[in-house]
Amino acid sequence: MSDRIAVAKTYKLYIGGKFPRSESGRVYPVQDVKGKFLANAAHASRKDVRDAVSAARKAFPGWSGATAYNRGQVLYRVAEMLEGRRDQFVAEVSAVEGARHAASTVDAAIDRWVWYAGWTDKIASVLGAANPVAGPYFSFTVPEPTGVVGVLAPQKSSLLGLVSVLAPVLATGCTAVVVSSEDRPLPAITLSEVLATSDLPGGVANILTGRATELGPWLASHADVNALDPTGAEDRAALARDAAGTVKRVLNAPAEEPDWTQKPDITRLRRYLEAKTVWHPMGN
């Protein structure tokens, strides 16, 4: 029997490609399904939300301006690294959700990331159009990313649900500020480590740990956030009212967490895109 003293891990936030401590200095304990202590997670504050939004806004021009092919290759690389750390993800999902379906859940999350990565260079052809017009004009509609998206991740599905709400944001060329599951943040923290060591530019995805009830209103009311996914929130009506002050798009999330094992479709991709129509005169 080992007589070594256990060294408890205290994880940090992921903002702008770096791992800062919360400016508040707060942390909170994370427990497994049996109530056993696992680690300490950073307790993000309003200031951390502002820093994350600023990082996402700064990264948006470069990420949205990259070619769809390039974004797809970057996201495929993330999937490769998820696969490389599969055993760690299985252990963490098992600890916080239970061991029964942990391996299949992680495999589904990796496959889900690959699925969305494959859509990056197909979005324009599926959601864009050449419009028929009565006149000497060409008219084209093309989808464009909406901007910075605030995401309140699912509270129960710590990895598959998280991937299902984050991957479509990045695939469309938007940047993200994510508040992870409060009680089950470890898979999100490990995902942030994967993102930091992949080809994803810093600031494209920012992951905060803490309380959605505390951080959600600051994301909803922030003027530099263009869209909000309230999936993991409790009082979604209040968030919608907060978001109305800056006229941001709020996704219509179901009252209960959906079954994330169901096959995805392009609905979430469509939600983060704006339609831009261009008219051009015909001529010799």
UniProtKB/TrEMBL annotation:
Q: Please, which domain of life does this record's source organism belong to? A: Bacteria
Print the keywords alphabetically. Oxidoreductase
UniProt xrefs under Gene3D superfamilies? Aldehyde Dehydrogenase, Chain A, domain 1
UniProt-listed Pfam families: Aldedh
Domain named Aldehyde dehydrogenase is located at 27-250
What the entry lists under InterPro entries is as follows: Ald_DH/histidinol_DH, Ald_DH_N, Aldehyde_DH_dom
GO MF term set: oxidoreductase activity
Q: Which PANTHER family match?
A: ALDEHYDE DEHYDROGENASE-RELATED
* UniProt protein name: Aldehyde dehydrogenase
Q: What is the lineage of its organism?
A: Bacteria, Bacillati, Actinomycetota, Actinomycetes, Pseudonocardiales
